Amino acid sequence: MTKIRSTTVIAIKHNGEVAIGADGQATMGNTVAKSNVKKIRKLQDGKIVTGFAGSTADAFTLLERFDEKLNSYGANMKRSAIELAKDWRMDRYLRKLEAMLIVANKDEILILSGTGDVLEPDNDIAAIGSGSMYAQAAAISLKKHAQNLSAEEMVKESLHVAADICIYTNHNINVEKI
Description:
Oligomer: single chain
Strand content: 25-35%
Distance between the termini: 38 Å
Structural class: alpha+beta
Number of domains: 1
Radius of gyration: 15 Å
Order of helices and strands: EEEEEEEHHHEEEEHHE
Number of strands: 12
């Protein structure tokens, strides 16, 4: 059975602003299954924004668990991410999930990997999914050479670059900022 997959997500912190965005494409094997998937979710009354890549059902399972951790730990994003990562490594069911998350608040960005890792990215840029390296390369260049752009503008442009190169990324972009 072919799994439905989702693709490129990027978050950038720049000049005191955090923005996270994703394309809208989901593929089933080598076919576009849907072109306008919403991969960005707000949690904790919009104080935390998340994006997912990988199997959609698996990502929603992780998002639900992460939201539970946020509720348990007073919306402390880093502590909640670490506690979810512990569960992810220990729980037989969670270990089989094929998804990654980017979580962000006004102060920081974290990547929660499929192996149960919590990563604080360099350069205040986090990217996951099929086109992540294209989007990340564009974001690094934009932060270095186009500092007048907002984080939101950098996210959009980085995703457009990825969509021009990666066949699993499209131009239906959704961006949220904190």
